[in-house]
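Q: What does the assembled structure look like for these inputs?
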Amino acid sequence: MNRLEVRDSNALQQQTPGSEKSIFISGATGFLGGHFLLKRITWPGRVFALVRGDCLIQARQRLYAHLAECADSYGTLLPESDLDKKLVVITGDITVANCGVDADTIDTLRKENIAEFWHCAASLKFEDRHRSEIFSHNIGGTQQMLALFETVCAPASSAEFIHISTAYSVGAAHGDIAEERHLPERKFNNAYEESKNHAENLVVDWCSERGLSYRVLRPSVVMGPRASHHSGTTRFGVYGLTKEIFRLRDTLSRLEHPLQIIGEDAATVNLTPVDECVYDMLSLSVNGFGDQRFFHLCNPSRFNVKQIIALIDSKTGANRVQMVPSREGEPSPLQDLFDTRTRFYAGYYHSDKRFQRSAAPQPALNWSDFDLYLSSFLHELRIEEAGGVGFQSQTVTARDGTPLKVLYCGDPQLPALLLVNAYGMPAEFYWPLAQRLSTHFHIITWETRWVPSLAHPFDPLHCDSLVHARDLADIANTLKIEAATALGWSSGAQVVLRTMAEFPQLLRRGILLNPGVSIAPSEQVRVTRFEAGIRSLFAKIAGNYRMAEKYVELIFGAAGADAGDRQLLSNILTSTDPYLLYMTSLPFRTPESLFRYAHMMHALFSEREDAWTGDVQRPVLVYVGENDVVTHADIGRALCRGLAQGTLHLDPEGDHFGHYYDARVADLVRAFSLQESPEAVDEV
Amino acid sequence: MNLADPGMDTLRQWLLQRHPHLSSIDDSLDLFENKLIDSINFVEYILIIEELIGREIPFANDLVARTATLRRVWENFLADAVPV
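A:
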């Protein structure tokens, strides 16, 4: 079938003119849920969308912004008239009782005679280290949605609970996969699959016991719209792996030995375009589900995984990743690290699943489609990269004449929030947090001098936090920012404290996320094994350029040159998240960048043992993730002891990179930054 | 019995400084298995050997095996080296 012959969901609507039913949906700010709502809203009947948010206005704005992105992926505009007329946004959260929906809203929903409850919401996290949160969202969230469904729709009603799962809830099975219940006693490739399987079984048991009707819809790996081959906003599945290799391409291309992914030559993956998936969903809704309970939303084509990897490798320009049946010899530290960071995908390198489907088949995807998807996505990534992700940029000249690349987003009329990056990390690290906060703040950050860009001259004798504090002050003065809040992550926390100490009139509040600062280790202040290691390592590298050269050679050059404690070297590259490996490894790419980075970190650790807290009078929030393996929670505690107005927030689930992927961190930052400060600026 | 050699003494001293709980290090002790060398100090260890032999040691697959004990360092690098 020609790729222009995408099935038209508008034609479905014409099959049943006059049919009007209201639906309830969760997960509309997600990928599939958003695309579904975008089409469904043009049909008759109201749509009640459960959306997380501080308030109705913010939740609605967030949903509209997401739907506009979805619409843009088809080259169309947001159907605002339909949305304004038929979309009812309900603020809530699937992780709390009755999804946080109040009694009045429940009454409204009861009167509306909701015909279908679409549960599209799921955790975006997929790594096993987030197991408890994945389970909480995917199983606990389903439980709450079922309870709400029961509350709203009396058992006697014919309303349907439609659970969006995944075709891969079948786990590590091979061969023909039937459209039937998959009992939970089976082997899974990862926590995500397992949670989705358990959620499916929960739906079946819960609804069966109460005489409620349910359907389980299982999309395979969802790609962007076939109509445009745009990614359609997702970064999951094939896109996630592609993005990882794209970001690592420069690092990978420096490797003497290719990275090897162990997989079967015959392994396949099923890809389904989101517009075809939405067509399937709408078709079932309009034509009825019949007696069938389980549905595979999949494509008749299966794509060979080895070929996919080869295409991604060549089109990203990495040319250093290959799929092999087995490896010889010991893996290099970088190989180990790559394996660890991409473990989620490993389950898909070994199986050939053939998903059976009773419905009429989707138009078959072919390699030309895949090539177009990949080209389009790489184009998106290059645009993001060139534009500092989604930030706007301008150059500000620091007092010493150094040009600084300043990045910003959000309305300049809103309160200013300055994001101070960890040494050596690109501004991209702050983009997810900036996005979450840009509706409330004018966000400003900048590319820290010296590393990762080597453009600025470097003086090893003058590379302490004061230089960065002055940069912050120069940026604030140039942009005429007054009484702002500054947020620093990891070593950026030291810069925030230094700025608050040196320029007390500049900042009204400070926020320190997982601080990596000059508090000295002691019996009361423990440091992580990682910090102990880098304190020692960077002192040595700073004193010996040759050591920087050797380290880069060790990381990039030698397969199997491990020193008995492979994990520690991996930890030096740090990162516990596959999306972050690229960014955290930047300072390690060349001897010069590593030499500079080592000097900067060594200088930081050599600064005042109270990390300047004794000179800071303003309120400071210290956030510490208790699962942080980079900086110890004791550092946060010690900072608070030294601060005049320090507030410690211990997050039992957080780790070093919480701000990157956890919306709760943004919520915390928002709440603290918008608090009124009783003490006026001129009192200090 | 440990070899008497200035280069070996340098390495022993360097290791003992980093592991003050040890009073001596046998030439046949596996430095990696016993966590005396890890990824943090491995590079420094190689650099010291390079200084002792006056030439660069490229990282290769067998480098860990060739430097796992002080005796192997002697056999593979120090024995034939011209003192520098």
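Residues 6-78 of chain B form a domain with the Non-ribosomal Peptide Synthetase Peptidyl Carrier Protein; Chain A fold (CATH 1.10.1200).
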